[in-house]
Prior knowledge:
By secondary structure, this protein is α+β, with helices and mostly antiparallel strands. Helix content is 37%, strand content 32%. The chain has helices at residues 2-13, 28-36, 61-67, and strands at 18-24, 40-47, 50-58. Strands 1-3-2 form a three-stranded antiparallel sheet. A hairpin with a 2-residue loop joins strand 2 and strand 3 (50-58). The longest helix is centred in the N-terminal third of the chain and has 12 residues, at 2-13. The termini are far apart. The relative contact order is 0.21.
Amino acid sequence: MLTYVEENILRKQVKAPAVYLATAERHPWLVSIYERRGYEIFAERDHDGEKIVYLRKILDETLYRIIENKEPIVSN
């Protein structure tokens, strides 16, 4: 179901360049599941004594690079 949502809803319909999520480190199996699905950790923070892990999966590399200003926008 997650693959369907990522590809058909977020990428094709919403045109989202990436998807972000957060999970508590105390759920160690969640982080590894998301990493196997292509998510990467981009930040970790402490929230009320609990470590929160932030993950990102890029769905459209070209659009992501444009939005994040990692590549200049070419105009005609």
